[in-house]
């Protein structure tokens, strides 16, 4: 079983926001082309996405189905890879101070992937997970930074508005004092 983890410099809600956006699946899952909804509302149970995987000249049309979802903390997926078979991928999120510990656990279930599963395949899955978690971290940290920048801009705008309001109030009071 390929289990890999990474601490992502974003709160669990920011990580979940990326995982829960089916249109961003290809942003963090290595080897996938643009994803699109196939069935249901991602990431609810039994919802699925379809996408293309290219292996040299070979093009596979894969599907990922949500088998279990605990909003904000766990997403269990079944990857259906045509002739290669199916795999289970569990993604867990754990609060880690102001960050998120992400644990990915993947293993083949059926088909050629399950029959041919060995130490070499396990090594390839580990390398893929390392790249996938790095991409997920980049997506989540960008999302968190964008949210922080928007909050900072809102806070700065509110502070400017309060200063302007106080200045306007002071001017009005001064005007009343002269009357």
List the main descriptive attributes of the protein structure presented here.
179 residues; alpha+beta; seven-stranded antiparallel beta sheet; 4 helices; 42% helix; elongated
Helix and strand topology:
Elements: E1 2-8, H1 12-19, H2 25-28, E2 36-39, E3 48-55, E4 58-70, E5 74-80, E6 86-96, E7 99-110, H3 112-115, H4 119-178
Antiparallel strand pairs: 1-7, 2-3, 3-4, 4-5, 5-6, 6-7
Helix pairs in contact: 1-4
Quick recap:
42% of the residues lie in helices and 35% in strands. With 179 residues, the chain is an alpha+beta fold.
Overview of the structural elements:
This protein is an alpha+beta fold. It has helices spanning 12-19, 25-28, 112-115, 119-178; strands at 2-8, 36-39, 48-55, 58-70, 74-80, 86-96, 99-110. Strands 1-7-6-5-4-3-2 form a 7-stranded antiparallel beta sheet. Helix 1 crosses helix 4 (119-178). The chain is elongated and about 65 Å long. The chain starts with a strand and ends with a helix. The mean pLDDT is 86.
Form type = elongated
Termini distance?
A: 82 Å
Task: Give helix % range.
Answer: 40-55%
Percent of residues in beta strands: 25-35%
Radius of gyration: 23 Å
The ordered H/E elements are EHHEEEEEEHH
Largest sheet: 7 strands, antiparallel
Strand order of the largest sheet: 1-7-6-5-4-3-2
Mean pLDDT across the residues is 86
Helix segment count? 4
Total strands: 7
Low-confidence stretches are none
Q: Output the structural class.
A: alpha+beta
